[in-house]
Specification:
The complex is a heterodimer of chains A (717) and B (163). Chain A is of the alpha+beta class. The mean pLDDT of chain A is 96. In chain B, strands 2-1-5-3-4 form a five-stranded mixed β-sheet, sandwiched between helices. The model of chain B has no long low-confidence stretch (mean pLDDT 94). Chain B is globular. Chain B has two domains: 2-76, Beta-grasp domain (Ubiquitin-like (UB roll), Roll); 77-162, [2Fe-2S]-binding domain (DNA polymerase, domain 1). By secondary structure, chain B is α+β, with helices and mostly antiparallel strands. The chains are: A alpha+beta (717), B alpha+beta (163). The interface between A and B is large, with 57 and 59 residues. The complex binds FE2/S2 (inorganic) cluster (FES) (2 copies). Residues 38-41, 43-48, 58, 60 of chain B line the site of one FE2/S2 (inorganic) cluster (FES).
């Protein structure tokens, strides 16, 4: 029996689920493994041109641009200036070209003449703060409170200072987090399919299909309602793909001008230089603890490195209860592109510093690393989750529980912990349609895009559960603004925003179908039961109809209902704990993560298979943040020197430890919560702590490369 | 332009392309075989991996003209090749990647699968370390690799069954 409630829609008891909460293969799997899935970057339409941006090669400039020379190249169809006057960071686009082939577009872009005069710039934190440093932009000083000039800090400074004085043990440290890149494998861009007339279709690599028509209509010179956006498959987003970016705008402008489709996608360098990074940060922290483990005080002075942007909002103290705290939250501007949202914007950075501080305090008073965490976390979810990860990682058998290893010998092993929090709830605005055809076909439609998280599969699973079918019996239709309203995929809101709509639509469709079948089955509508591909009266389970035969009784137009968001079907408030076990080679400074465990609550997990994939992926991205990834700027030239996937090190499969992703099944909330962000938060802190636990080397700067480990070890001896 | 004679997925094709085009460009822009992905265009990501005479090769680093005289297999050719060799159902690598959910966005997938395919045809009983080595040139930003490695192991069992 599937979970079928005749009153208001509810997910029903987990024990009753036949499809939901069960590992379900991705419905896009077959198409993807055959190479048939068409991503926006793969789209080719007749008469299509390829676009290329002309980017300025210095960090700050005054410039003029002459696009005419590009037009002398045969095959270049259009060249347009995009801005005039000045640029604020390296790689900023100033003109665009469209041509018959990608390489002609490149030739055209090279032919555009940009006359620029470099201006004084700063691209590193040190130079941005140096006395007399060139100002990044005229809008604000290089170093300014994020909350505006009236922002004098949060909390009570005097009380914090007193509490520090009263502490039994005090630590002070500066934490430095390098800028991480999203590095989606499909770069940003879109195909503006416009051939003249008053309509256009945009095939975009975007996290917000429904945002594109509004952005594209202006540059296309069309009405918003005549612009459609399609996102059939998408090669990753992680927070970087919310706007259509300059590449998208330029493609639309050029398509409008020549009346031909233009496809324009970033190359990898542009992707690094201008299209997505997690802000770096510098956090100076002083914290104090009482002998009994209570954290009494924390004074934090934070600089967010958001380039020309302000960086994210998350601040100290992060998650843990701190009796008295005072926090200064500053933006430290540089002449680099603005940071963007990236999986749990701001959280991994503050988590890394906070978790490090918690360990430093614990060692100072000889406390157990798990116990001190529980002592300063009120929510019982964290207590059980920490116990569980501690058990899975082998904490109780571990030798360094209250003091780190000494850094002697050759190889050392250590364990570290971290916790995370996130909302993960959804919101209103989306809608879904579920349709049953007379031939037995079921379509489930919602315009939302699937970034790779598995939304497409959920769109089929929810009606399948309702009708007693399999997910593969339902055709999911997504990624199209001609379908019912989707939602932007960011902040882990997608599942909690769309699943309730799908549930509502499925529920209404089932009730209407039951009403129709009551006369056929000669029972009351409330007794019509859908299970295992059959439909029957509750009292006569052996005398029912097959699903197909039941559908054949429908009128020619079939049956369809739309559903809206229902707040009770979702909730927010995700908690997670992670533990990492690492091995440090004391001779070379190389760190290898041996195992990571995540215990994560997220209400009702709709598809555990894609859930695990998300959590594992988040842990890997944390390994990258902790050990390998970081934008490297050349301070004198003002350019990024590792703007490619060779020099910017992403974790590869050689770096993958054993990963264990566990659903916190003591969370019995019968409501869905998104899980994209929370597991991406605590890993870096846990790894840094594990390195220290192994050998006593406290490294407060990410990524923790071997040179930093060796330097810290040298200081120990 | 130069007329190239290429053997792609068992078909002999004549393609006119500029002489300096890479195999990746010929596949994507001339032949419409977009299953071969372009992730970096400079040999860093592995998304453009194809098989050249059964060996994995980054098609963004090989000229189209250099591919002449060799048998090229792209992701689109795996299933037909499996069938042509008398295989039933899906190719074991494709089937395993699908079963294990070894994909999120799937952009890295074609390259991953072809690297796995090449490994399994040389070494039908690889260890996890062998698999990690073979896939170490293929980057994935989404999945966490775990399911990819599981899939490659599962494919190994199945390949053995087929052989
Ligand atoms: S596109 Fe060839 S290796 Fe990245
Ligand atoms: S699944 Fe997205 S890059 Fe591998």
């Amino acid at each position: 029996m599937t979970s079928q409630d005749n009153g208001t829609p509810s997910w029903g008891a987990r024990a009753d689920h036949r499809v939901l909460n069960k590992d379900t293969r991705r419905l896009s799997g077959p198409e993807k493994v055959k190479g048939e899935a068409i991503y926006s970057i793969d789209r080719h339409v007749p008469d299509m041109l390829y676009g290329k941006l002309v980017c300025i090669p210095v960090a700050k400039a005054e410039f003029t641009v002459d696009v005419d020379p590009a037009m002398e190249i045969e095959g270049v169809v259009i060249a347009i200036p995009l801005r005039e006057g000045s640029t604020l960071y390296n790689g900023q686009a100033v003109a665009a070209v469209a041509a018959e082939t990608p390489e002609l577009a490149e030739d055209g872009a090279r032919a555009v003449v940009v006359n620029y005069t470099p201006q004084g710039f700063v691209v590193t934190a040190e130079s941005a703060k140096a006395p007399g440093a060139p100002q990044v932009s005229s809008r604000s000083p290089n170093h300014a409170p994020r909350g505006g000039s009236n922002d004098k800090g949060r909390g009570d400074m005097d009380a914090t200072m007193e509490a520090l004085d009263a502490s039994d043990f005090v630590v002070e440290a500066e934490f430095d987090v390098a800028i991480q890149h999203h590095a989606c494998l499909e770069t940003h861009g879109l195909l503006a399919d416009f051939k003249g007339g008053d309509e256009a279709t945009i095939y975009a690599s975007t996290q917000v299909a429904f945002g594109i028509p509004g952005s594209a209509a202006g540059p296309l010179g069309l009405d918003r309602q005549n612009v459609r956006c399609v996102v059939e498959h998408m090669g990753g987003g992680f927070g970087a793909k919310f706007s259509m970016d300059v590449a998208g705008r330029a493609a639309c402008l050029m398509a409008a001008e020549v009346g031909r489709p233009v496809s324009m996608f970033n190359d990898r360098r542009q992707e690094f230089e201008t299209s997505g990074n997690r802000s770096g940060s510098i956090q100076r922290i002083k914290a104090g603890v009482a002998k009994d483990g209570e954290i009494l005080a924390m004074h934090s002075d934070m600089d967010k490195l958001g380039g020309v942007g302000r960086g994210p909002g998350a601040v100290q103290p992060y998650i843990y209860n701190v009796l008295e705290s005072f926090t200064l939250d500053y933006a430290l501007h540089t002449n680099t592109d603005s940071s963007r949202a990236m999986r749990a914007p701001g959280h991994p950075q503050v988590s890394f510093a906070m978790e490090s501080v918690v360990d430093m305090l614990a060692y100072g008073i000889g406390a157990d690393l798990v116990e001190i965490r529980k002592r300063n976390l009120s929510d019982p979810a964290y207590h059980r989750q920490l116990d569980r990860v501690a058990q899975e990682i082998g904490w109780n058998e571990h030798q360094h529980r209250t003091a780190p290893g000494k850094g002697d010998g050759w190889i050392a092993e250590g364990i570290g912990f971290g916790v995370s929090t996130w909302g993960g709830g959804g919101g209103p605005g989306a809608a879904a349609e579920v349709r049953i055809e007379r031939d037995g076909g079921v379509t489930s439609s919602i315009g939302v895009q699937d970034l790779g998280t598995g939304v497409r599969t959920l769109v089929a699973m929810i009606p399948a559960e309702e009708f007693g079918l399999q997910a593969s019996d339902v055709l999911p239709r997504i990624g199209d603004t001609q379908l019912p309203n989707g939602v932007g995929s960011g902040g882990s809101v997608t599942t909690a925003s769309v699943a309730p709509c799908l549930k509502d639509a499925s529920h209404k469709t089932r009730l209407a179908f039951a009403e129709h079948l009551a006369s056929v089955l000669k029972c009351e509508a409330k007794d019509v039961t859908f299970a295992d591909g059959k439909v029957f009266a509750k009292s006569a389970p052996d005398r029912g109809l097959t699903w197909k035969d039941a559908c054949a009784t429908l009128p020619a137009e079939g049956l369809a209902r739309t559903g809206k968001w229902i707040g009770d079907l979702q909730t927010s408030g995700a908690h997670g704990a992670q533990a990492a076990r690492v091995q440090v080679d004391l001779m070379t400074g190389a760190v290898k993560v041996l195992k990571m465990v995540a215990v994560q609550d997220s209400g009702l997990v709709l598809n555990p298979l894609t859930w695990r994939s998300q959590v594992n992926g988040a842990m890997i991205q944390s390994i990258g943040l902790a050990l390998y990834e970081g934008r490297v700027m050349e301070p004198d030239l003002g350019i990024q020197i590792n703007a490619n996937l060779g020099d910017y090190k992403l974790p590869g499969c050689m770096e993958i430890p054993e990963l264990v992703a566990i659903v916190d099944d003591e969370d019995t909330r019968q409501a869905v919560i998104g899980v994209g962000e929370p597991p991406a938060i605590p890993g870096a802190g846990a790894i840094a702590n594990a390195i220290h636990n192994a050998c006593g080397a406290r490294i407060t700067s990410l990524p923790i490369t071997p040179d930093k480990v060796l330097e810290a070890l040298a200081k120990l001896s | 332009m130069r007329l190239l004679e290429l053997e792609i997925n068992g078909d002999r094709l004549h393609v006119a392309a500029p002489p300096h085009w890479t195999l990746l460009e010929v596949l994507r822009y001339e032949l419409g075989l977009t299953g071969t992905k372009q992730g970096c265009d400079k040999g860093d990501c592995g998304a453009c991996t194809v098989l050249v005479d059964g060996k994995p090769q980054l098609s963004c680093l090989m000229l189209g003209s250099a591919a002449q005289g060799h048998a090229i297999t792209t992701i689109e050719g795996l299933l037909p090749a499996h069938r042509a060799q008398g295989g039933a159902g899906a190719d074991p690598v494709q089937d395993a990647f699908d079963r294990c959910g070894a994909l999120q966005c799937g952009f890295c997938q074609p390259g991953m699968m072809l690297s796995a395919k090449a490994l399994l045809s040389e070494n039908p009983t690889p260890t996890s370390t062998d698999i990690k080595h073979a896939l170490s040139g293929n980057l994935c930003r989404c999945t966490g690799y775990t399911q990819i490695l599981e899939a490659a192991l599962l494919a190994a069992t199945k390949t053995e069954e087929v052989l």
